[in-house]
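Data availability (excerpt). All sequences and predicted token strings are deposited with the supplementary files. A representative entry, Helix-turn-helix domain-containing protein, is shown inline so that the format can be inspected without opening the archive.
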Amino acid sequence: MTMNEKINIGDSLRKKRKQENITMKALSDQTGLSIGYLSNVERNITSPTILNLQKICEALHTSLGDLVTRPEENGIVIRAKDRRQTIDENHNIHILTMDFGLSEGYSLLMINDPSSPDSSFEGTEWTHGFTEVGYVVSGRIRVIINSTAYDLELGDSILIRENTPHKVYNLSTTEKVVTYWTRYQKRTDEQ
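Structure token line:
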């Protein structure tokens, strides 16, 4: 992650928290993260892990794609050099965000898991305030939704509805896992 990306995320988090009228203490209570840690993230002193960023986004009713400041070109093309990459060293995954700033709330993430075969997100259960569709570009994954396991491989897709707990595991034994996730989040200003 470059310094500009850290600044964009920290600044965006602070701006979104203030828009939502959420105090630092309330955000700490909702996420289980310390006020000091959250303050350091907002001031770009600390880079949040993907898991912590997810907790913060859920508490602020937003998504990672909405937090990343995009170049104000024309919203039609995202150049490779402008695409935002987030690296979660704890889970050894890379996330490329392709968000065109559409008012409908769509964003596209490419998640690249270069970790060793049979790795997982340590059984982390994810719950998002948005619906997402996953597509396997390479490797094999297992997605567990409401205690039902779905094994997916190259070309397979899966729909995960908003507020549905799920887990994702890497089942590949020889190749890295790359998945695309299209997310749709209803905007709070929609009627």
